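Notebook entry, structure prediction.
Reason for the run: the old model in the group folder had no record of what sequence produced it. Starting over properly, with the input documented here first.
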Amino acid sequence: VRFFLTSILLIGILITRPAYAATIQIPPGNVADLIAAINTANDESANPGPDIISLAPNSIYTLTTLYDWYGGLPSITSQITINGNGSTIQRDSTAAPFRIFLVDGTGDLTINGLTISNGGRADGGGIYNQFGKLQVNDSIFSNNDAPEHGSAINNVVGIVTITNSTFFGNTGNYSVTSRDGGQVDISNSFFSNNPG
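New structure, fully documented this time:
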């Protein structure tokens, strides 16, 4: 009986463990490769399953222009984990304002150890989570701006979990906002000098 139960538990673990489709390494500062990696991860027909994008340690990825109307990077439409490894994704200070990320309804984005800086939009200057899922771990949001909702993160009918993260210098209408029944859970995080 003990062997039978152990076998069931092991089978359960094997079934529930996510199978990552791809782990994509991004060279230091290479925004074009970062954009390509997100598009690859989003393509569920060619590349099904969750994906990991790993940034080069302690690098800066500077966005100089909109990728599309929604932000400086492709919208997140699948399950993606971005391991920042202490790196920063930022909008160039000389560029017209735009947000960094949009997480769409089918999107499920986890960011680990990443700084998101200098994003700007009417709402969701850093990240706009629209019906999707967003998990933020050990990350920093700095100098993002949104005059209407969520200078760092705006959540609309989505689920956001923030752990061990720091928000400073973000301006506008609150650093993190949630609207229309969205859910936000914040733990062990620090907010400082976020006027608005």
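Summary: The longest helix spans residues 2-16.
The old model has been moved to the deprecated folder.
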